[in-house]
Amino acid sequence: MTSAEQGNSKIKAIIRACRLIMRMNQALPEARKSEAMYYQMLINYFTRLLNARENGDFVAAHTVFFPAELIYAMDMVPMHAETTTWMTALFTGECSDILAAGAELGLAYEICTPHRGLAGAFALGVLPRPDVMLWSNMVCDNTAKSGELIMEICNCPGFFIDHPFKDSEYERNYLVGEMEDMVHFLEEKSGRKMDWDKLSEIVARMDRQIELVREVNELRKAVPTPFHSQGFLELVSSDYLFPGQPEAIEYLETLKQELADAVKEGKGAVSNERFRLMTLFLPPMHLMAFLEKISQEYGAVSVVEPFFTYWGEGRLDPTKPLESVAKKSYMIPEMRMYGPMDERALNSIVDCAKQYKVDGAIYYADVGCRHTCATIKLFKDTLNNIDVPVLTLDCDVVDPTATSEEEVGEKLEQFFELLEDR
Amino acid sequence: MADNTQRNNVKLHTLDRFREINSTFPKTSQLLEHKRRGKKVFGWLCTYSPEEIMHAADILPIRITGYSQETELDEGNAYLYVNNCSFSRSCLQLGLKGEYGFLDGVVGGSTCDGARRLFDLWRNYIGTPFHHVLTVPRKYTEKAHALYYHEVAQFKKHLEDFLGFEITDEALHKSIELYNESRKLLRELSDFRKLDSPPITGAETMEVLNASFHMPKEIFNQWLKSLLEEISASGNSHTGRARIMLIGSVLTNPEFIKSIEKQGGLVVTDELCTSTRYWGDPVLLEGAKSPLEAISRRYLNNFPCARMFPSDERFNRIIDFALDFKVDGVISQIIRYCVPYCHDLPLLTKRLKAQGIPTLALDVEYGTPGSGQIQTRVQAFLEMLEAKRK
Amino acid sequence: MKALGIDIGSLTTKVVILENSRILSSVITTSGEEAESSAKEAVEKALTQAGLSFDNLYIVSTGVGRKSIAFSQQPKAITTCLARGICYLFPSVRMVIDMGAESSTIVKLNERGRVKDWANHDKCAAGTGIFLQQMARLMQVSMEEMSKLSLQAKSSASITSTCAVFAESEVISHVHREPPTPKEEIVAGIYASVISRIMALCKRVGIEKDVAAAGGVALNRGLIHTLEKEMGFGVLVPDTPQLVAAIGAAILAEENVEKGLK
Q1: Which domains are delineated in chain A?
Q2: What predicted TM-score, i.e. pTM, was given to this entire model?
Q3: Which residue from A207, B165, B294, C210 could staple onto C92, CB 3.0 to 4.6 Å apart?
Q4: CA B27/CA B180 separation, integer angstroms
Q5: Distance in Å, alpha carbon of A195 to nearest chain B alpha carbon
């Protein structure tokens, strides 16, 4: 198998898996229509990637929190590097090969699995070779440093967007300047021009998209909460993969209606809601189904995820497209993890906990993620101050060998007992 | 193996002064003297913190480092978690234990994840009267320089507000002159090691650098001048099996360097932020719009940390030094979880190999004396280099 | 209805029977291969001691085997039971260190015996009873002798490895040194290493007085002495520290009886 074929075989596996889930969803009368729409979005995304070469499309690989709006506006095919790696691991069950390939490149064990796996995936040809590699330093050193090796492996040009640390007018202007430079770079490499009107449309939709997520979040405040525990991953992907895209708007509008109906009927995601949880950082991809099962069994639902679904304040102005894309990068939920961890950031966690009537919080401590783990004690103390207990679960977001369902189940059970006993 | 590094060499007495300073870390006698006179002492972390600005405000800037040896870091672990580098945990632990209680201010940059979290936790759990973190761009473009200049100006303003007086251009000029003098003298010290048989070892050089971080430059420069004279007059010469360049994460323990040199690996140069990168480039006033601009330009352009982009800037500088110092091999010591350095290693090794320079990659913890397994691997590396030489 | 708590550990099974918050009887036996039958045996023993029969009992089970016995009315996590148990014995305790055979658990509790937070070492052998047993075998002494030796030591040998496997080889090298390191110093070093693992766990959750120790390993006077030295204050140890979790389970059983639960 050539590496191109191998790359395609993994993408095909993802598409196949998504199709299967969608068909099962459609076979069940109770199933959410929005869930089917979500999987269709994924199918479209990966199909586009699969056929990019044939269609003469320009593939722009990019890292997480990179403004993919700009890629879409130039009519290019985005490849969200980390998500594609996660999904390859999740849907094909294969992870050890890409991690081993990353190690073979000389990348240390301490580099987090999404990024070690990313480099390994490109080296193995498991991901299609992009025309250009785009990355930024959002939100950590691993992301900042992954681009150059990938450029070398894939023998493609690349651009790094330097996102400044603090939020001030000066720094925002710097970021806009970075984005301008990137647009010039892309125009030069692809021979295409940035369609500014299209970008304005995308920004307008992105504004609506964020509003919709906020509205969905409002509905999740209901007791019992209407959205199931692992559902938030759909909200996350809808921004990572489809910023300002019409299908994302449709999906969110459908989801919103479904949740609104459920709230009106007093219908909760679990039959007996006992514990409302705050999820800090990401649960391991490979435990998704298991965690959903536990959620149903114990009546424990994740109602808010401050770093993944809880957007910062602000609206986007389509008449100022580039400034708006820059502004959006400061509003994304994960941005709370960047910038100085000051009173404001900590207060927003406390606000979340209060507004969503959170009983307890679970911190998924990914072994490779340094900057999030460094906040465990800080968040624990902050939440303990308002009498919200925090469970720390050592795990790895991509590598299933780091922990077992048994261990995780045991700890969760102990935690739920703690909450029950109060 | 052959340890003829010290056989015919005389003791350098001036080094004892530096050693005395290091032995009382962190509350060195010089620092205490400064405080006794009612002056302020600030702690800074990375080479992107502009010292001259603090100095111009009559503050003694000292470098925040961790314990001088590998040690239990339970408190550091509890706050920073075990997967942040042992350097950041070590610094935090010292802070949590009150060992840095004498600091009137802490200054850092948004340099890497370990550093920025160290500062977050410092602010929340230790608290120092003045606390400032500069945004440090990762690029060298004109826009990046403009941003960093803006940040340096903001820092200066914050400092002026805190102190209640203006930091004049005149004061900045004087500080630049003083720090440039330090850099010039440290470069002279480094140049000694270009010789085939250097009169001073890598370990001794580290001891000098360590002291420089914890005392006023006025006095340091004088002592260093004496040392340079003593070295010239000493007729000392150190030989070894191979000439080594030491690169990688923060290193302050001279024992580690000693353990390499004892086996015959002469550490003739390095790329450490606590050694060569510290003095790096001088501040150039010529052509600068203001002393502040000259300072910010120098600090951003200085011999890069692995956090900077493009990585080739760092790689090229390393290769320049390696060739200039006629290095036989490179030893890379990277602290576990030091992510920027880990990421650079594959490409850097490749570039060095293209120059015919082999690299030994070591995983270390901050403060390690370099014993046991590390010694074995170094020995094998040196043997290989020695054979290559022949 | 009488309340019975049973703690089924990997090495030992503990049973406690309560009536009106008073301990009627308690039993410590070796855990058998077959959890259900050996647990039943332990329960029978405790009942006999108290002069009671098997009916009219509310049973709460805890420990690794808590779910493997059909006759338990409710399985509870070890952390919940440790908190209740230690609160019953020493109401001022806010942190209990359970030194078990295979793992150590630190539980922070409030004044009502409710768990606030906990931490444990489940992947690592260092800091556990089994590790100490191994070391005793290596030094060719019994556990009691080892404890006595540590109290005699004037200084402790340095055992720097945080890993049990490497610590073992360090001990071996101390024993075979020329001249060999005095036995009591090696033991002191081993204990210091074990306690340092425990202290690291304690600092993770934040040390809060009063501190108590539970589990079989807490009977080791030498180890407790080392712990107190590190803590800088005294640590409360119950007369039968192995029973703390079983007592807690029994208290939970009593609470359920009061609530009228079946």
Answers
A1: 3-193 (3.40.50.11890), 197-420 (3.40.50.11900)
A2: 0.92
A3: C210
A4: 25
A5: 25
